[in-house]
């Protein structure tokens, strides 16, 4: 990979195969890898993938830009290279420069929330897309990034027995051998059913330094974690073994929110229940539901939930970077 200019790759199939760009070929899809990320991958350095939906749809501008920069700084301070992923003008970008990050943040919700199913459309129409967990997994896997940090993953929605609303994050994890570091599953979802679905998808799930699976805004969900890991090095060994065994399923490492930010859990849970009721009354469904619920919970808690969200993302970035560094030392 060249480090002096953005590296371009051809998306040749869905099996994580990458071919160098041939200037004589007409390609339908291009991936632009930033010089910093390209060089890090080439040299076997630690790289951490970051999604972009949290920037465009998670909070208002300029708070979203400030948070994105702070998260990237945390990754760098802990020895890894951040690779924020988004689609800009139809070009999937792995690693954003300051200008691209600013543009994404300022566009906000006008950017299409892009899950795995939406990638081809956004690229074909030369649109702007903020990647969700499933789309970020796709692009990160394509260039060989093994660690991905996010806030919380999607899951089985409450009342899914009626709506059949199950996030594509779960199926993407089941077929993408990447470790996702999150604060568990968003508390607006049905956590027990989500854990059952992850088991069906053969996704290894572990709580970090805890026996209980975290519930995003709170340290505990009432659900016992399927497994437990207690250090970045232990996490790295699991990820390394998963790769060497050529398993195609991913890994979910659930990191509890820091204690000082989990005290408001009861307040947030009460607000969540009210927001869920309002979403049903207003018939808010599909990929519009999660942004609606998170925004409404933030309103009902006077900003407490957003502050907790930011805190847990930063904590995940810290732990995720340490895991990525430990993994790079095993390579």
Ordered list of secondary-structure elements with their pairings:
Blueprint: E1 7-11, E2 18-20, E3 30-33, H1 35-42, E4 47-50, H2 53-56, H3 63-77, E5 81-88, E6 91-94, H4 98-107, E7 112-114, H5 119-124, E8 129-131, H6 133-142, E9 147-149, H7 160-163, H8 168-175, E10 179-182, H9 191-200, E11 204-208, E12 228-229, H10 232-244, E13 251-254, H11 265-281, H12 289-300, H13 304-328
Parallel strand pairs: 3-6, 4-5, 4-9, 7-8, 9-10, 10-13, 11-12, 11-13
Antiparallel strand pairs: 1-2, 1-3, 5-6, 5-8
Helix pairs in contact: 3-4, 3-13, 6-8, 10-13, 11-12
Describe this structure in words.
By secondary structure, this protein is of the alpha/beta class. It has helices spanning 35-42, 53-56, 63-77, 98-107, 119-124, 133-142, 160-163, 168-175, 191-200, 232-244, 265-281, 289-300, 304-328, and strands spanning 7-11, 18-20, 30-33, 47-50, 81-88, 91-94, 112-114, 129-131, 147-149, 179-182, 204-208, 228-229, 251-254. Strands 1, 2, 3, 4, 5, 6, 7, 8, 9, 10, 11, 12 and 13 form a 13-stranded mixed beta sheet that branches. Helix 3 runs parallel beside helix 13 (304-328) and helix 11 crosses helix 12 (289-300). Mean pLDDT is 88; it is low at 1-5 and 9-29.
